[in-house]
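chain below, 382 aa
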Amino acid sequence: MLFQEILGQHHLKSHLTKSADSGRIPHAQLFVGPEGSGTLAMAIAYARYLLCSNVSGENSGGNQACNLKFEHFSHPDLHFVYPVATTSEVKSHPVSDNFLPLWREFISKNVYGSLFEWLKFLGVENKQGQIGVDEAQDIVKKLSLKAYEGGYKVMIIWMADKMNIATSNKLLKLLEEPPQKTVFLLITENPDDIMQTILSRCQVLDFKGLPESEIAEALLSREQLDEKQAMKIAHQAQGNYNRALQLIQKEQNDFPFEEWFVQWVRAAFRAKGNAAAILDLTSWSEEIAGIGREAQKQFLHFCVEMFRQALLLNYQSPSLVYIEPTVDKFKLENFAPFVNGNNINEIFQELSDAIYHIERNGNAKIILTDLSIKLTRLIHKK
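prediction:
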């Protein structure tokens, strides 16, 4: 991964290269940014810049053998940590090294990929990936050894918010007394879920969503789309290059999120004064409860965005609306009047609470049934 291959974020590229050139390299940095903004790509490019002694603000002119190793993400002083879960092959105590060949294949295909896509790639999308205490012991062991090539060692921790408490505490000790010439690059989309004591020991770099122009240009040059289609998809992607790629492939997920959402809100409309419709909501809850927790969270985030889009349409901001529903006889403009300032805060709160409880292993059927019954009241609130 080269800096020139990363979309946008020019000020961050400049900051990282200039600080490296001047020898001011923080031992711990936290890259914070939404999905598809290029946090992982930037971390890998920065690690390459440090380890291969590259110059000129770009990854060139340094150690060519080192650069070649980075083409395959196989440099011995570059270490990756990422959320994992048990599989049919790894039945207990999973750690990142168990899945390293798969990880290299995953980021080779799309370094902008999401956590859900990674878990799906592993075949564990029905589970919640985490970075456990066994991982922390591996990190300590790796960093206690000397650098293979005598320079820096770089530890990239992707989705650092998935560290549990025990892992976070062990990492905290390393951050307080870091091994010599070791650089930690933590990556997260949710900094609020990281221990405050870890946050306080990291230099934070904020990544923003990508401009539509950057995404459109990449789609034109890399995906060979025509200009009109590239601009449309760039607008729909909302700063997320990974989403743009999904829209091209029309494989955003293996689940019919849009159909489930429409089925849900239609049942909620019918349920007012109609006890029989409650059975439809119960059946809906049972269906969603069977798809796995990561997929459930993805779906509820999708619902949040659908309600947000309806609110924007209701308040006469069509230029900000990018979702175009394809479900038969469902039009966002007809649904929009039922989403307004009197109910949107409560709807968002109920959805957020449902995500919170599912993430903490609550009974999904009960959580979703409760959410559905509350929606029947909120959706009719004028």
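The mean pLDDT is 87. The chain has 17 helices and five strands.
thats it, cya
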